[in-house]
Design brief:
The chain is mainly α. It has helices at 2-33, 50-55, 69-100, 106-118, 121-134, 141-165, 169-177, 182-193, 195-211, 214-220, 227-235, 239-263, 266-272; strands spanning 34-36, 46-47. It contains 13 helices and two strands. The protein starts with a helix and ends with a helix.
Length: 273
């Protein structure tokens, strides 16, 4: 009896997962190929590659033919890569100091890094926009990068700090005894051992920047058009184009998550804490 109940619950869970994940994705895929799809038909009346060709910039002439996914994706990738590089250049030394040294008010500092996630980001970006106007950062890639760094620094600081804490300090001490300086011990011992955790924080920061909308909307308009911005503008009146853009964004995110799973084994993840 107990085994039958467990089996029934597992089957119910699988059905719920199917309806919550597979069906929305299937609908998204159908909409991206649908040329005509009217209620109450369960399937499109006419399918084709017209909206995909438009999204990829091959053909123009539909509702938003002047815009392509390729240009928006280029902006998204450039901003995400810059955000990752600058965030890690700041967070790695800061996280190492928090993990290794007796920093005054360390719990308070870690809590402060969580502040952007505690409060709603919309009013923060509105006030940030007023500050950025004074420095001509609104509508620029550096301004959007700074807006993305503020919340993404949370992932970098917390994951990197936990990563360095998981590495025994005795390994650095052994390197120092062998003649390595502080920087040499860090570069030759600590940094290579921390690569799995640093890779995890890098992927999280990259995906956050790639999918970020609110900060790009307030800081980047009207000149910075990323893929989430394009998806938002198209979703109101061009479902086919918006579906194609969403599939591209989803494919990139899924690819990076698969890479993360490929390189981060269970023993590495266990050391992050």
């Amino acid at each position: 009896m107990y085994t039958s109940v467990r089996l029934a619950l597992k089957l119910l869970l699988l059905v719920l997962l199917f309806f919550s994940i597979a069906l929305p994705l299937s609908s998204l895929l159908l909409w991206s190929f649908a040329l005509k799809w009217y209620w109450p038909s369960p399937l499109p009346q006419e399918v084709g590659l017209d909206y995909w060709l438009e999204a990829l910039g091959v053909r123009k002439g539909y509702a938003i033919g002047a815009v392509s996914v390729v240009g928006a994706l280029r902006y998204s990738l450039i901003i995400a890569i810059i955000t990752v590089v600058v965030t890690q250049l700041i967070s790695i030394p800061a996280s190492y100091a928090l993990a290794r040294y007796k920093v005054p008010f360390k719990p308070l500092l870690l809590f402060l890094f969580l502040m952007p996630q505690i409060f709603p980001l919309q009013p923060i970006y509105v006030n940030l926009m007023r500050v950025f106007y004074a420095y001509d950062l609104v509508g620029t890639i550096p301004g959007v990068v700074l807006a993305h760094m503020m919340p993404s620094m949370v992932f970098a600081i917390w994951i990197n700090t936990a990563t360095f804490k998981a590495i025994p300090p005795e390994l650095e001490e052994a390197a120092r005894v062998s003649g390595a300086g502080p920087l040499g011990a860090f570069l030759r011992v600590t940094l290579p051992l921390g690569v799995p955790g640093l890779l995890a924080s890098t992927v999280f920061v990259f995906l956050y920047s790639l999918d970020e909308f609110t900060g790009t909307f307030f800081i980047g308009l009207p000149y910075i058009q990323t893929l989430p911005m394009l998806l938002y503008s198209a979703s109101g009146y061009n479902m086919q184009f918006a579906s194609a853009a969403a599939i591209v964004l989803l494919a990139i995110s899924a690819t990076f998550m698969l890479l993360l799973e490929r390189f981060l084994k269970a023993e590495y993840l266990g050391r992050i804490g």
